[in-house]
Amino acid sequence: AQKVTQAQTEISVVEKEDVTLDCVYETRDTTYYLFWYKQPPSGELVFLIRRNSFDEQNEISGRYSWNFQKSTSSFNFTITASQVVDSAVYFCALRVFRQGAQKLVFGQGTRLTINP
Amino acid sequence: GAVVSQHPSRVICKSGTSVKIECRSLDFQATTMFWYRQFPKKSLMLMATSNEGSKATYEQGVEKDKFLINHASLTLSTLTVTSAHPEDSSFYICSARDWGTYEQYFGPGTRLTVT
To answer: Do A79 and A18 contact (CB within 8 A), yes or no?
Structure first.
């Protein structure tokens, strides 16, 4: 079975601090995708990144960066120089490629609050 | 980019009535659509997977007679909450998978309140 664990339920930091959101996943499949989504108070899910299981290169996009470590089954997300607009709930998700089982499994989410 | 719309965005209905939520893929065809439910401060829970032209596949514990799903075309899926009760109040999110790229896109969600 597939499982995604986001152990940090809530994180609160002061603006301009760096913050890392943890994500640990479980799957027996060798081919899978990992995702991060942002859910602001409006409720709409905002896609941030997709990473496939064969690509362990870290990714940087502006203030956002992702660290994928297959050895520890982790896909952590770091926001550098956080801003108040980063306040949201962040979800990590996993999708495997097995036929007939192409659904996304979400972690519990981490509520991030950036205080001015 | 690909857009998925949901209508209505908010709905309030009385207990015992039925309410229909529409999910449309606006600029791509979706052979598969997903319906999720999200309780306050909780994660998204997959309710069912619908494939165009066939019956939906419901997740364990989801009552198929209560949550009717119809996926009659490649751009439209509907979720009907029948005989709604206050405990059905929730945020419902649909997602559509592009049949060509296999990318999955999410709608903005529908907040249902049953009084």
So the answer is: yes
